[in-house]
Amino acid sequence: MEINKFNILVLAYMGDVIYETYIRKYLIDKGLSKVNLLQKNSVKYVSAKNQAKYLQVMINNNVINSFELDIVKRARNNKGSSHPKNTDIITYKWATGLEALIGYLYMENNITRIEEIIGYIIKNSEEE
Fold first, then answer.
1. CA distance 19 to 2
2. What are the tens digits of pLDDT across the range 34-74?
3. What is the pTM of this model?
4. Does residue 100 have a pLDDT over 90?
5. Which residues are known to be catalytic?
6. Could you give the CA distance from residue 4 to residue 74 in angstroms, rounded to a whole number?
7. Which domains are delineated in the chain?
8. Closest to 25 measured CA to CA, from 1, 47, 42, 44
9. From CA 43, how far away is CA 110, in angstroms rounded?
10. Which of 47, 78, 101, 125 sits in a 20 to 30 Å window from 14, CA-based?
């Protein structure tokens, strides 16, 4: 798929759903069975602050290749200025970059790469 085929925020929209679905499945597979515990534990992965943090770790450790980084930067540099009240715009834009990358990979049907990235995030979070 040509990267310019979709609005970068549409890719982030899709990536948000895919990323959160993987995280929810991981937490359920871990044995969490109460919705309030699932919600509380999912914040460790799906909050903009933590998404941005894990993305930076992956960039710093060369987990993200140059093509993937271009997608992240394209989303990060999008001119939109709205963001949730509980996070700053820069953090939110980095989190949007991660979501756009996941969305792109999903639209490309590159499930293996999605699982590698999310697996890295989960492993990294467990080591904290």
1. 21
2. 999 999 999 889 999 999 999 999 999 999 999 999 999 99
3. 0.91
4. yes
5. 16
6. 10
7. 3-126 (1.10.1520.10)
8. 42
9. 25
10. 125
